[in-house]
Fold Phosphonate C-P lyase system protein PhnL.
Amino acid sequence: MATPLVVSEVAKSFTMHLRDGIKLPVVSDVSFSVASGECVVLGGPSGIGKSSLLKMIYGNYAVDTGQILVDHKGRIVDLAAADPRTILDVRRQTLGYVSQFLRTVPRVAAIDVVAEPLVARGEAAASAREKAAALLEKLNLPETLWQLPPATFSGGEQQRVNIARGFITEHTILLLDEPTASLDAKNRAVVIGMIEEKKKGGVALLGIFHDEEVREAAADRILDVQQFSPRKAIAA
Ligand SMILES: Nc1ncnc2c1ncn2[C@@H]1O[C@H](COP(=O)(O)OP(=O)(O)OP(=O)(O)O)[C@@H](O)[C@H]1O
């Protein structure tokens, strides 16, 4: 399908249980799509709902109304209504997510953290590790670190492990939440190149980049999330 991700009329409020269940609307009437080979960047001021939107699409936050349609192995799945088992299968096969911070697993070597998504998809450990090594090399992570658990790595080193882990699979949709926030210029350029490769491979990318240089280089289109903010209507 040429449009692997379609978001249709999505709305979300947060319920503040410690404040008498008061409801804080964060976005409403969110409709957009991301085409194959396109990188759409979410824009708008801090606190407007960009990260929340990515978390809704990944299934970490439930939505109140609307549909999140993904092409999952040729079948359209509505993630807003899918059961947890389906969401996990979509994440394994179709929908990747690179968060800002690496969630480290104690005692697992960096190279295995990166290889793990491929192993989870049934690839042999040896070939998954080879691909992991190639990506870590591309991202300039010193080879002396590959066999060490990333818990003690610097912020930028952990972020590169995280990026390698997110980019290693052939997911057809990739969500990127500030993947370059802790990187130096050299490695930001590497990540821009990796995004270009994904686009050429027909992947649909949706990201948040506060770094203007990365945003300009990666974005085919900037989607201003402010247009989906119900707060303007409340203030009026
Ligand atoms: N789990 C949550 N519970 C309650 N409120 C939340 C939760 N997550 C986010 N919010 C609120 O929703 C709003 C949008 O937050 P979000 O992190 O999506 O914004 P953002 O546009 O990504 O901001 P930034 O650019 O600063 O990262 C904020 O007011 C935030 O406080």
